[in-house]
């Protein structure tokens, strides 16, 4: 301890540089990640704010009271339609605002007659079909009301005559958002109720609605599992690909390292596998697609998994590692009468855990994040992996940035977990696999 | 054949000869089916004016090749590709090497820093590009906001012909390359400590040791990484596509983009196959050249 301290000249400047550069790099590389995470909780208006805002704001709960006193008598369905118009139309008009929920309370002659409640996730998921544009008409809501009911996008509670008394409200809250809502009700020919009060409160439970909205959209496309379905697909594809790579690549790597004595043949087979690294994946897109079509595998998870069985670099890594296992050990096993396959399973594999771990992780990431091939080969949503779903989400004209950020954030979590637990193995495997020369 | 001893020897011989075949066969079949067969069908298609309705269509010999070799769009794309290659080489390739060298000197929180370096790597590419598109936004993007403190800008990052290429490379500078870093770092850590101790006793300073001991000792992995880097950069597609779609005015159109566009937008599979074959040969040639050079150095 003492010796290193006094002997090293230049150690201090090196350590200082090392820490400074490392911290600088990690901070810089974290900026996009942090921005993604914080944007997942922001409204689009805040995402595009200038100067940039880093801290997400708590969404607003807007509570509107509409007074129907003095109007012609109406049916329950008419009230419901009016409430939906009073929810969806002004919300669409202020779509970029940070609105977490809208509550509409209807009163008549001082008594509460209904309450309607819509959360932001339902609005985000339903908005493309319910209010696709800002052309609001009464006829539009006639057509959309059944959809709102069927998908349970808004809840409507009817009290009728049994409603409680309502005390006088405090008028319209003093905020830009509330007054825009009030202006909308005031100038609208469509909404029948007269604006009594608008209150605004913070609704922090609605911070996570971008995540819920992503799930609701996915449920429409891929069935009741929602976004989980894409994750399950991605998991099946990734785990099967890794398993196939470990098994086939391990066997082939072992054969190249120990079972082919003839140097010329060994070189031939190594080149046979390694040369494929240079074939541009993109140029194989079309012939591979036609091949999958001939095999009747288009629109199945197999179509994504099978091409991963041919990754040149995997065999190369395995071979590099296996070469370091002593021939004498293997010979001893053979003399004992073990078959080659048993030697491989019971002697080689247990000695080679690091390389198996390293290969798993090194292939997990690119397969998990793979995009172009799954996009080309599967066009039915139930066979999508999450990357394809993510891209689809981005291409839908009405989807908001915070939802894209939310789904990206979720998709990072599996890799994050793997890295936390497997980092040690990856490093070990990489160090052993012959790349050190 | 009925003599027991001979039979025994026969089976042993067949045992030894057939096992490698059996072990290699599944991999060989997979490679033939998913790599070599598509490659050959691509070569074949490149001699045809491909028609989807009636494949493969009319045989036109080398016409596809002469067509793209004489088109200025193609050579523009080739030049773009190599400008990108130079930019990536100059701005990004050395970064994980430097990071790993410096990281190897860090004692405190080393694992933490290694983990932090991985974070950008595990961010989905689509999300990464979206974030960067926002950072580049001329009106409210983060980069112009920061640069205005220094009296610079505003820049039209993705619309200015002069800096679009730089704008595409810049995210890789920021994010580094987590996997490469890990490879370099592990290689450094596997250098025997005796060598370093000996150099220390000889009075080599830490900086000198880094330069003359660590760096040469990881040369092999730098070479391997360079090969992967080369084909990766020369065939880069995803990030450029999502960022600029090849614009503005074709200034970021690379050959791989031309390959995809002619195939999937114009349905001209023949010429697309011919162009990707061209890229295959360019990369193979460069790899061989590069191997020769590094072999001579040894």
Automatic annotation (TrEMBL), chain A:
It holds the Pfam family BPD_transp_1. The keyword Transport applies. One of its GO terms (biological process) is transmembrane transport. The keyword rRNA-binding does not apply. It comes from the Bacteria. Keywords: Cell membrane, Membrane, Transmembrane, Transmembrane helix, Transport. It is a multi-pass membrane protein. Residues 231-422 form the ABC transmembrane type-1 domain. It is found in: Cell membrane. GO terms for cellular component: plasma membrane. The chain crosses the membrane at residues 16-37, 230-255, 267-289, 301-322, 343-368, 403-422. Belongs to the binding-protein-dependent transport system permease family. PANTHER family: ABC TRANSPORTER PERMEASE PROTEIN MG189-RELATED, ABC TRANSPORTER PERMEASE PROTEIN MG189-RELATED-RELATED. This is ABC transporter permease subunit. It comes from Paenibacillus sacheonensis.
């Amino acid at each position: 301890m003492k010796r290193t301290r006094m002997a090293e000249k230049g150690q201090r400047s090196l350590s200082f540089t090392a820490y400074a550069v490392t911290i600088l790099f990690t901070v810089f590389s974290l900026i996009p990640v942090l921005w993604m995470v914080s944007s997942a909780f922001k409204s689009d208006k805040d995402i595009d704010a200038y100067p940039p805002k880093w801290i997400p704001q708590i969404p607003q709960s807007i509570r509107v009271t509409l007074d129907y006193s003095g109007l012609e008598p109406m049916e329950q369905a008419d009230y419901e339609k009016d409430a939906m118009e009073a929810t969806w139309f002004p919300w669409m008009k202020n779509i970029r605002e940070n609105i977490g929920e809208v509550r509409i309370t209807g009163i008549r002659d001082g008594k509460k007659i209904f309450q309607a409640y819509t959360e932001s996730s339902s609005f985000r998921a339903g908005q493309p079909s319910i209010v696709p544009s800002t052309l609001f008409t009464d006829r539009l809501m006639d057509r959309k009301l059944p959809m709102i009911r069927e998908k349970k996008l808004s809840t409507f509670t009817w009290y009728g005559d049994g409603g409680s008394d309502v005390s006088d409200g405090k008028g319209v809250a003093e905020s830009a958002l509330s007054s825009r809502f009030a202006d909308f009700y005031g100038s609208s020919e469509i909404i029948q109720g007269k604006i009594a009060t608008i209150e605004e409160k913070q609704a922090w439970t609605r911070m996570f609605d971008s995540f819920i909205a992503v799930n609701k959209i996915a449920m429409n496309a891929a069935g009741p599992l929602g976004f989980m379905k894409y994750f399950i697909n991605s998991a099946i594809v990734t785990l099967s690909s890794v398993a196939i790579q470990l098994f086939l690549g391990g066997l082939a790597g072992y054969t190249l390292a120990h079972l082919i004595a003839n140097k010329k043949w060994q070189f031939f087979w190594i080149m046979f596998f390694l040369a494929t690294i240079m074939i541009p994946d993109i140029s194989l897109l079309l012939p591979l697609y036609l091949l999958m079509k001939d095999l009747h595998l288009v629109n199945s998870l197999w179509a994504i998994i099978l091409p991963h069985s041919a990754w040149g670099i995997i065999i190369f890594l395995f071979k590099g590692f296996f070469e370091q296992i002593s021939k004498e050990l293997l010979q001893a096993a053979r003399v004992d009468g073990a078959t080659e396959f048993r030697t491989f399973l019971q002697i080689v594999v247990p000695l080679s855990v690091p390389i198996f771990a390293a290969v798993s992780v090194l292939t997990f990431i690119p397969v998990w994040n793979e995009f172009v091939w799954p996009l080309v080969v599967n066009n039915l949503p139930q066979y999508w992996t999450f990357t394809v779903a993510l891209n689809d989400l981005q291409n839908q004209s009405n989807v908001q940035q915070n939802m894209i950020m939310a789904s990206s954030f979720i998709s990072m979590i599996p890799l994050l977990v793997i890295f936390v637990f497997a980092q040690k193995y990856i490093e070990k495997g990489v160090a052993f696999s012959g790349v050190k020369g | 054949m009925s003599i027991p001893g001979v039979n025994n020897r026969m089976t042993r011989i067949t045992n030894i000869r057939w096992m490698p075949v059996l072990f290699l066969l599944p991999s060989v079949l997979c490679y033939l089916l998913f790599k070599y067969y598509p490659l050959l069908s691509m070569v074949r298609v490149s001699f045809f004016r491909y028609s989807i309705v009636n494949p493969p269509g009319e045989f036109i010999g080398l016409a596809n090749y002469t067509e793209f070799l004489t088109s200025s769009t193609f050579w523009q794309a080739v030049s773009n590709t190599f400008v990108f290659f130079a930019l990536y080489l100059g701005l990004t390739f050395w970064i994980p090497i430097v990071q790993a060298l410096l990281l190897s000197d860090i004692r405190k929180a080393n694992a933490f820093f290694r983990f932090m370096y991985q974070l950008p790597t595990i961010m989905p590419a689509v999300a990464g590009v979206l974030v960067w598109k926002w950072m580049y936004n001329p009106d409210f993007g983060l980069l112009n906001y920061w640069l205005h403190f220094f009296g610079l800008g505003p820049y039209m990052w993705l619309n200015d012909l002069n800096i679009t290429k730089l704008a595409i490379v810049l995210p890789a500078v920021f994010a580094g390359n987590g996997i490469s870093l890990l490879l370099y770092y592990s290689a450094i850590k596997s250098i025997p400590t005796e060598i370093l101790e000996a150099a220390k006793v000889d009075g080599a300073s830490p900086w000198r040791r880094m330069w003359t001991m660590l760096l040469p000792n990881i040369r092999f992995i730098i070479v391997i990484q360079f090969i992967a880097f080369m084909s990766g950069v020369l065939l880069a597609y995803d990030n450029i596509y999502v960022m600029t779609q090849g614009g503005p005015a074709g200034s970021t159109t690379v050959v791989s983009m031309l390959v995809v566009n002619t195939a999937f937008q114009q349905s001209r599979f023949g010429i697309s196959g011919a162009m990707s074959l061209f890229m295959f040969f360019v990369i193979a040639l460069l790899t061989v050249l590069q191997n020769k050079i590094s072999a001579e150095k040894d």
